[in-house]
From TrEMBL:
It catalyses: D-gluconate + ATP = 6-phospho-D-gluconate + ADP + H(+); 6-phospho-D-gluconate + NADP(+) = D-ribulose 5-phosphate + CO2 + NADPH. CDD domains: GntK. Pathway: Carbohydrate acid metabolism; Carbohydrate degradation; pentose phosphate pathway; D-ribulose 5-phosphate from D-glucose 6-phosphate (oxidative stage): step 3/3. The lineage of its organism: Bacteria, Pseudomonadati, Bacteroidota, Flavobacteriia, Flavobacteriales. It comes from Salinimicrobium oceani. It is an enzyme of class 1 (oxidoreductase). This is 6-phosphogluconate dehydrogenase, decarboxylating. Its EC number is 1.1.1.44. InterPro entries: 6-PGluconate_DH-like_C_sf, 6PGD_dom2, 6PGDH_C, 6PGDH_Gnd/GntZ, 6PGDH_NADP-bd, NAD(P)-bd_dom_sf, P-loop_NTPase, Pgluconate_DH. One of its GO terms (molecular function) is phosphogluconate dehydrogenase (decarboxylating) activity.
Length: 630
C-alpha cells in the first residue's frame, strides 16, 4: 500500500515471486467509470471507492481460500483498509511503502503508459493516513534492498505476543496460531516451579507458527512494531506488576491488550497511566472457558477505536460465530466498557448457575427425584431453553465414579473469583437493584460456611416436608425457572444500561446480547431472543410487551414454587429473589414511604410528598416534647 509511484507493483511482483503466490494490482479491479475519472485527473470520491473496495474484498476472500496473494492497493485511508480488513476468511499483512513527496513526484513524472496524472499526487498525500500497524518500508533504496527488508520482517516478527500460558492463555495461543497468525508466547521461568513452559508448549505444537520465550526482552524483540501484546494473567496486582516489567521495553504506539478479568476501574486507571508514555491499552473481556478459548470465545473489547481498528480483525477471526456467521466480538466502547460488560456477563452467569443448582436441589431433596430423572427433566426443558449451562448440568447429573454419582462426592462449598461480587458492588454504586445476582453471590458465601452449617443443621433439625401438588409440580417449576431466568437477565442488562449512561460508553445492548449468543458460558435461546428485543426496545426488559405477557403467565407458578419450597424448608435464594424483585417492580405503591418517614424521624433527611411536585422536600417534627418524655 501507499501513494502512486512508491513501487507497489514492482515490489509486489518481486514479493509474489519470492513467496511463490499470485500478484494482483487493485487498480485492475476499478470499474470503467473510475478509470475514466482518474484518466481525466478527477480525484475519486468515497462513493466511487466503495463498490471497488467491496469487489476487491470479495476477490481477497477468494485468494485467501487458496494459496494467498500479494495485492498492490493504495489503501490511503484507515476506513478503506478497514473495509478490506473486515473479512470473515482471514487476515491481511499490510506493507506500507512510503517516502517524501519530492522523491515520489520525481518518480511519477517520468512514468509512461499509466492513467494516473501527476497532479493527483498532492491530493493523495493529503488523503494519506499512516497505518499504526504493519511493516513500514522507506522506498528511497533499491527494489532488492526493499524486498530483503520485507522478507526479514515477514520471517522474523510475530504479529502478536501472548503473555501468560495458563489454561486460557494456552488455548488462545493455539486458537491464534491455528487461524494463521504468527504468534510469540511468553511465560516466566521459576526454577523447579515453572521451567521451560513456553518452549515446551511450542515443542508440543510443532505444526503451528509459534515462538516460545522465557526471557522477556527476547519476547519483546520477536514482535512486529508497533507491538501487540495480549496479557493472560490473573487480575489485580499481578497485572500492574507485569505492566511494570514490560515498561522498560515498550515504545510509543505499542498496544497492551488485557484479556483477563480485570476490574473495569483498574482498566480505566491503567489506560490513563500508560497514555502518558504513548502506550495504548485495551480491556478485553473473554468468555468461554478452556474450550471456548481454543475453538472460539465470546470477546468483549473496549478502549480507543484506533486500537480496536488495529487488532479487531485478529480478535474477530478467533471469536466464536453467531448463527449468521458473524463474529461474537464487537467494539463496545471506550476505557473500561469491555471489562464491565464481561463482569456483568459473569454476574448473570452466577445467577443462572445458582438457579439451576437450587432447582436441582429442589427436585432431589424435596420431590425425591433420582439424578437420572432430573437429567431427563432438564433435557426436556433444554429443548426450549437451549442453555449451555443446562446442557453441562445434564452431563454432570449422569457422571458416575465407581457406579455412583460423582456429584455426591463434591463438597458443597462454592468458590468464586470476584466478578459476581464486583457486579453487586457496581449495582450498589449506581443505585441499580440486582436481586438475583446478589442472591447468587450470597448463596456462594454461605455455602463456604460448611462447618457452621453442619452445626446449625444439627441444632435446628428442620425436616423437609412431603411434596404437594405432584401432578402439576414439574410444570410450575419449569415456569418458575423460566421467569427467574428472564428476571436475572433483565436486571443484568438494566445495570449495563445505567453504567453506559453514567460512564458515557454508549453500549449497544442488542449487540452485547448478540456476541453472547455463542462462545460464552451464558449462551442460550433466551439470549438469541434478546438480540431482537433490544433492537426495538430501549426501556427495561421487563416492560417489553412480549416479556410482560410471558411473565404474567408464569407469575403464579413462580410465587407458588417459592412459597412451597420455603414451607418445606428448601432454600431457593435466586428464585425467591426473582419473585421479590418482580413483586417490587410491579408495585405502584411500595413500602418505601415508611422508610422515608423513618429516615426523616431519626435523621431529618427530609422526604417528598405525593401531593406536591417531585423535587420539593419536607421535614416533620414527629413528636411533641410530651410524647418524647413518654
Amino acid at each position: 500500500m501507499g501513494v502512486s509511484g512508491v513501487g507497489k507493483t514492482t515490489i509486489g511482483k518481486m514479493l509474489a515471486n519470492e513467496l511463490q503466490i499470485p500478484f494482483f494490482d487493485a487498480d485492475d479491479f476499478h470499474p470503467p467509470a473510475n478509470v475514466e475519472k482518474m484518466s481525466q485527473g478527477i480525484p475519486l470520491k468515497d462513493e466511487d471507492r466503495f463498490e471497488w473496495l467491496k469487489h476487491l474484498g470479495a476477490q481477497i476472500k477468494t485468494w485467501q481460500a487458496k494459496e494467498g496473494a500479494v495485492v498492490a492497493c493504495s489503501a490511503l485511508k484507515e476506513k478503506y483498509r478497514m473495509q478490506l480488513q473486515e473479512l470473515p476468511s482471514g487476515r491481511i499483512t499490510w506493507i506500507f511503502l512510503h517516502s517524501a513527496y519530492e522523491i515520489i513526484h520525481k518518480r511519477i513524472t517520468g512514468r509512461e503508459g499509466h492513467y494516473f496524472k501527476e497532479e493527483l499526487l498532492r491530493s493523495q498525500y493529503e488523503a494519506l493516513e499512516f497505518p499504526s500497524y504493519g511493516i513500514h518500508i522507506e522506498v528511497d533504496q533499491s527494489p532488492e534492498q526493499i524486498l530483503k527488508q520485507i522478507m526479514e520482517s515477514l520471517e522474523k516478527k510475530a504479529e502478536i505476543g501472548l503473555f501468560g500460558l495458563g489454561v486460557m492463555g494456552r488455548s488462545l495461543a493455539l486458537n491464534l496460531a491455528s487461524n494463521g497468525f504468527k504468534i510469540s508466547v511468553y511465560n516466566r521461568h521459576v526454577d523447579q516451579i515453572e521451567v521451560d513452559v513456553a518452549k515446551t508448549f511450542v515443542a508440543e505444537n510443532p505444526e503451528l507458527d509459534l515462538l516460545g520465550f522465557d526471557h522477556l526482552e527476547s519476547f519483546i524483540k520477536s514482535l512486529e512494531r508497533p507491538r501487540n501484546i495480549l496479557l493472560m494473567v490473573n487480575a489485580g496486582k499481578t497485572v500492574d506488576l507485569v505492566l511494570e516489567s514490560l515498561s522498560k521495553y515498550l515504545e510509543k504506539g505499542d498496544l497492551i491488550i488485557d484479556g483477563g478479568n480485570s476490574h473495569y476501574k483498574d482498566t480505566m486507571r491503567r489506560e490513563k497511566e500508560l497514555q502518558e508514555n504513548g502506550i495504548l491499552y485495551m480491556g478485553v473481556g473473554i468468555s468461554g472457558g478452556e474450550e471456548g478459548a481454543r475453538n472460539g470465545p465470546s470477546i468483549m473489547p473496549a478502549g480507543s477505536k484506533s486500537s480496536y481498528n488495529r487488532v479487531g480483525a485478529i480478535l474477530e477471526k478467533i471469536a466464536a460465530k453467531d448463527k449468521n456467521g458473524d463474529p461474537c466480538c464487537a467494539y463496545l466502547g471506550p476505557d473500561g466498557a469491555g471489562h464491565f460488560v464481561k463482569m456483568l456477563h459473569n454476574g448473570i452467569e452466577y445467577g443462572e448457575m445458582q438457579l439451576i443448582a437450587e432447582t436441582y436441589h429442589f427436585l432431589r431433596f424435596y420431590k425425591n427425584s433420582a439424578p437420572e430423572e432430573i437429567a431427563e427433566i432438564f433435557k426436556a426443558w433444554n429443548r426450549e431453553m437451549g442453555s449451555y449451562l443446562l446442557e453441562i448440568t445434564i452431563n454432570i447429573l449422569r457422571k458416575k465414579e465407581n457406579n455412583e454419582l460423582l456429584l455426591d462426592y463434591i463438597l458443597d462449598a462454592a468458590k468464586q473469583k470476584g466478578t459476581g461480587g464486583w457486579s453487586t458492588n457496581a449495582a450498589l454504586e449506581l443505585g441499580v437493584p440486582l436481586d438475583t445476582i446478589s442472591a447468587a453471590v450470597m448463596a456462594r458465601n454461605i455455602s463456604g460456611m460448611k462447618t457452621t452449617r453442619r452445626q446449625a443443621a444439627a441444632k435446628y433439625n428442620f425436616m423437609t416436608a412431603a411434596p404437594k401438588d405432584e401432578e402439576d409440580l414439574r410444570k410450575r417449576l419449569f415456569e418458575a425457572y423460566k421467569s427467574t431466568a428472564i428476571i436475572n437477565h433483565a436486571t443484568g442488562f438494566d445495570l449495563l444500561a445505567v453504567a453506559s449512561e453514567e460512564y458515557n460508553w454508549n453500549l449497544d445492548l442488542s449487540e452485547i446480547a448478540r456476541i453472547w449468543t455463542n462462545g460464552c458460558i451464558i449462551r442460550s435461546k433466551l439470549m438469541e431472543d434478546l438480540v431482537y428485543k433490544f433492537k426495538d426496545h430501549s426501556e427495561h426488559l421487563l416492560l417489553h410487551e412480549e416479556i410482560v405477557q410471558e411473565i404474567s403467565r408464569y407469575r403464579n407458578s413462580l410465587t407458588s414454587i417459592v412459597s412451597e419450597a420455603l414451607s418445606a424448608n428448601i432454600p431457593l435464594p435466586v428464585t425467591s429473589a426473582a419473585a421479590n424483585y418482580l413483586l417490587n417492580f410491579t408495585s405502584a405503591q411500595s413500602s418505601a414511604n415508611m422508610i422515608q418517614a423513618q429516615r426523616d424521624y431519626f435523621g431529618a433527611h427530609t422526604y417528598e410528598r405525593t401531593d406536591h411536585p417531585r423535587g420539593t422536600f419536607f421535614h416533620t417534627t414527629w413528636t411533641s416534647e410530651k410524647e418524647e418524655d413518654l
